[in-house]
């Protein structure tokens, strides 16, 4: 692989997403479609990607993938936690395998230099808003404002969210990505209040 391709592959990304992680830490990540775009841009389509092995465990799925870029071949493992309903039923192993494959693609791409450079900040973050009245988050029917919501979403809410996502043309993976961005968790683990908020967002889409 020539130096120009390596330079394009390792160029810093201008935007990195952030989501809540464990112990209150923020996790930075690059979206899968951005990795694919970078590979296409640098290699002009001269690359391929395939899953060599996959395994479904009790709590997660694992995959081993192969990324071929010109005359270079890289391998990497990826994983994804199984998404379950409130009752513990697995929602879609296929979608979880897709997430694991995307995770593995990102890791394999780093072996070519993709995503190793720091993010380039194009503009300064906006100034904090002036002090104002405290905003009360939206609540579901029957809830009291200001009371923490520790109850998991109902089956009716879960089914309605899936129906709205389908109506809006969102696949299961896209729905889960939306839930993770907004609430830091998959849709199956939303609270009643969070589910109500997501339903309003999907209705307004």
Tags for this model:
single chain, 205 residues, alpha+beta, Enolase-like, domain 1, two-stranded antiparallel ribbon, 5 strands, 19% strand
Any chance you could write out the topology, listing elements then pairs?
Blueprint: H1 3-9, E1 17-20, E2 26-29, H2 32-43, E3 47-56, E4 60-69, E5 72-81, H3 93-110, H4 155-167, H5 172-183, H6 192-204
Antiparallel strand pairs: 1-2, 3-4, 4-5
What structural class do helix, strand and pairing data support? alpha+beta
Q: What CATH architecture of the largest domain do you see?
A: 2-Layer Sandwich
Query: Helix segment count?
Result: 6
Total number of domains: 2
Per the CATH scheme, the topology name of the largest domain is Enolase-like, domain 1
Helical amount: 25-40%
What do these coordinates show?
It is a single chain. This protein is α+β, with helices and mostly antiparallel strands and 205 residues long. It has 2 domains: 3-110, Enolase-like, domain 1 (2-Layer Sandwich); 155-204, no CATH class. The chain is 37% helix and 19% strand. The chain has helices at 3-9, 32-43, 93-110, 155-167, 172-183, 192-204; strands at 17-20, 26-29, 47-56, 60-69, 72-81. The strands form 2 sheets. Strands 3-4-5 form a 3-stranded antiparallel β-sheet. Strands 1-2 form a two-stranded antiparallel ribbon. A hairpin with a 5-residue loop joins β1 and β2. α1 packs antiparallel against α2 (32-43) and α4 (155-167) runs parallel beside α6. The model is unreliable at 134-149 (pLDDT under 50).
């Amino acid at each position: 692989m020539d130096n120009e391709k390596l330079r394009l592959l390792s160029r810093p990304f201008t935007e990195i997403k952030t989501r809540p992680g464990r112990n209150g830490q923020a996790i930075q990540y690059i979206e899968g479609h951005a990795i694919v775009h970078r590979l296409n841009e640098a290699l002009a389509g001269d690359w391929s990607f395939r899953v060599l092995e996959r395994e479904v465990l009790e709590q997660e799925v694992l995959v081993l993938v192969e990324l071929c870029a010109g005359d270079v071949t890289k391998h990497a493992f990826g994983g994804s936690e199984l998404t379950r309903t409130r009752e513990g039923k697995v929602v879609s192993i296929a979608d979880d395998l897709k997430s694991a494959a995307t995770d593995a693609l990102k890791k394999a791409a780093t072996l070519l230099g993709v995503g190793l450079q720091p993010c380039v900040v194009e503009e300064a973050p906006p100034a904090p808003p002036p002090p104002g009245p405290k905003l009360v988050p939206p609540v579901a029917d029957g809830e009291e404002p200001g009371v923490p919501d520790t109850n998991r979403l109902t089956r009716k809410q879960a089914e309605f969210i899936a129906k709205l996502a389908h109506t809006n043309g969102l696949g299961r993976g896209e729905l889960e990505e939306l839930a993770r961005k907004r609430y830091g968790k998959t849709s199956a683990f939303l609270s009643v209040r969070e589910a109500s908020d997501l339903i309003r967002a999907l209705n307004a889409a």
